[in-house]
Write a structure and sequence with these properties.
By secondary structure, the protein is mostly helical. Helices cover 42% and strands 7% of the residues. Strand 2 (63-65) and strand 3 form a beta hairpin. The protein is globular.
């Protein structure tokens, strides 16, 4: 198991801002590195979904950053496989309210719900802030 020396990506970006005068500059973390981190998340999601596993709690606090600045996906406590997903339809509360689509908030989690959360996480990785002002819970 790898260790995420830099913590979650939200905390990592906060430290980078502090070290670079309050801004998440290209000098702090290049655009190409940010794109690489999004690609790493995409690969992790593709692998999980190919195995029929759904994370159900994608958010910046569950995206860990290694010492070599690679992305590690964490917190698999809410994951379900396809069969369990169908059996537990209607179950709510197992996602971050800011990173869940309408179906997941209504208790109808689908694989597309992970894709929605992926898109919001990708935005966070690229821009260093949430698409919405509510926070990154």
């Amino acid at each position: 198991m790898q260790h995420a020396e830099n913590g979650d990506i939200q905390s990592y970006y906060k430290r980078l801002r502090e070290e670079h005068g309050g801004e998440l500059t290209k000098k702090a973390i290049s655009i190409s590195k940010r794109v690489e981190l999004v690609f790493q998340l995409c690969c992790a999601m593709r692998h999980m979904h190919a195995l029929g596993i759904f994370h159900r709690d994608l958010k910046p606090l569950n995206l860990m950053v290694s010492k070599s600045v690679n992305l590690l996906l964490g917190d698999f406590g809410a994951t379900k496989d396809e069969k369990s997903l169908q059996e537990n339809s209607g179950q709510t509360g197992l996602y971050s309210k800011f990173f869940a689509d309408a179906e997941a908030r209504a208790g109808n989690f689908t694989p597309a719900s992970d894709v929605y959360a992926f898109a919001l996480c990708a935005y966070f990785i690229l821009h260093g802030e949430s698409l919405f002002n509510e926070g990154n819970e």
